[in-house]
């Protein structure tokens, strides 16, 4: 939410410097990786901001101020199969989507407008209510769990300038009954890792670790269920990257071996907002739509196979 306007001018500059960017990619300081473009996503997913692989399908959601709904497509990304509406719920700033065996978790945690939200929320949606084969599914409000939280080390709630807050977040996953949040942190070069219980209630998110990301801002997270955590990221200047952090299979941590990959710039691929594994080293990436000064990129699905 709001972040697209912030990046427009940087992406326009990137377009004008495309030749220079290409030369940098020819001799990268970190491995260059080219994902495979699959399809333009349906128009309903213009601001796609979170994605999961589930039952051989893709489940996605949009950024804030859009409908409070999940969208299910086939793995080609081009065909919308179902729309799941969350009754009585508002999409203030949805930014991430996670799952365990029983639930989907929707993170209404975007906080880049002023950094002082006191209504951070994660919605817990029972997967059992998505068994219908109809194109439209409505989940009643009373069936949706609410997980409310604040950051344990946030002491000030004074409003800040747009896209300067430390306590913004767009990346989440769930493991061993714990939700793991990875901050975007506009004000520094560190992403912070927080945890809270994956059950309804009100909590203080505990600081669990940190990762130095340089100029890159973290936009989503996925875990392959075994040995790799993957974080998507971009810079204000339009660079796009992935951070792969090796895991021990028992806990989620930012302390493992880190491998970084450089992707084509945002002016080529779009604004990278979503990632999900479907096996040990393969999965999907999604970028939201972008348009400025006559230049347009549609919301797009990509396939990745990383050399992990």
Structure description:
The longest helix is centred in the first third of the chain and has 14 residues, at 3-16. This protein is mostly beta strands. The strands form five sheets. It has an eight-stranded mixed beta sheet with strand order 6-7-8-10-14-13-12-11, with no helix packed on it. A five-stranded mixed beta sheet has the order 2-3-4-5-9, with no helix packed on it. It has helices at residues 3-16, 18-26, 266-269, and strands spanning 36-40, 48-54, 57-62, 69-73, 80-86, 94-99, 103-108, 121-126, 136-139, 145-151, 169-175, 178-183, 190-197, 201-212, 217-223, 228-234, 240-246, 258-263, 271-277, 282-288, 290-292, 295-297, 300-305.
Structure at a glance:
The chain has 308 residues and is mainly beta. 9% of the residues lie in helices and 47% in strands.
What labels describe this entry?
eight-stranded mixed sheet; globular; 47% strand; 9% helix; mainly beta; 3 helices
Q: Which geometry do the CA atoms define?
A: globular
Question: What structural category characterises the helix and strand content?
Answer: mainly beta
Largest sheet geometry: 8 strands, mixed
Number of strands: 23
The portion of residues forming beta strands comes to over 45%
H and E string: HHEEEEEEEEEEEEEEEEEEHEEEEE
- The overall average pLDDT, rounded, is 91
Widest beta sheet: strand line-up: 6-7-8-10-14-13-12-11
Low-confidence stretches at least 5 residues in length (pLDDT < 50)?
12-28
Helical amount among residues, as a percent range? Answer: under 10%
SS element count, helices? 3
In whole angstroms, the N-to-C terminal distance is 32 Å
User: What Rg, in angstroms, do the CA atoms define?
Assistant: 18 Å
């Amino acid at each position: 939410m709001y972040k697209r306007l912030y990046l427009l001018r940087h992406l326009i500059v990137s377009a004008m410097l495309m030749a220079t960017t290409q030369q940098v990619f020819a001799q990268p300081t970190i491995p260059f990786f080219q994902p495979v473009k699959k399809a333009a996503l349906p128009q309903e997913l213009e601001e796609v901001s979170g994605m999961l692989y589930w039952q051989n399908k893709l489940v996605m959601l949009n950024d804030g101020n859009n409908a409070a709904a999940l969208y299910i497509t086939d793995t080609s990304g081009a065909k919308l199969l179902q729309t799941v509406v969350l009754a009585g719920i508002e999409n203030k700033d949805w930014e991430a989507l996670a799952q365990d065996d029983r639930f989907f978790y929707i993170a209404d945690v975007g906080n880049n407008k002023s950094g002082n939200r006191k209504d951070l929320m994660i919605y817990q949606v029972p997967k059992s209510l998505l068994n219908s084969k109809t194109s439209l599914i409505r989940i009643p409000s009373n069936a949706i769990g609410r997980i409310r939280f604040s950051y344990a080390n946030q002491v000030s709630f004074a409003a800040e300038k747009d896209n300067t807050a430390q306590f913004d977040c767009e990346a989440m996953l769930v493991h061993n009954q714990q939700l793991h949040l990875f901050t975007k942190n506009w004000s520094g070069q560190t992403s912070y890792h927080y945890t809270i219980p994956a059950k309804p209630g009100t909590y203080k998110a505990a600081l669990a670790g940190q990762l130095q990301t340089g100029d890159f801002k973290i936009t989503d997270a996925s875990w392959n269920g075994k040995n790799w955590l993957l974080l998507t990221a971009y810079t204000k200047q339009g660079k796009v990257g992935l951070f792969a952090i090796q895991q021990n299979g028992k806990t989620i941590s930012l302390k493992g071996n880190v491998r970084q990959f450089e992707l084509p710039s945002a002016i080529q691929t779009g604004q990278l907002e979503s990632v999900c594994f479907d096996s040990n080293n393969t999965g999907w990436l999604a970028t939201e739509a972008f348009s400025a000064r006559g230049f347009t990129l549609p919301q797009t699905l990509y396939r990745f196979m990383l050399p992990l």
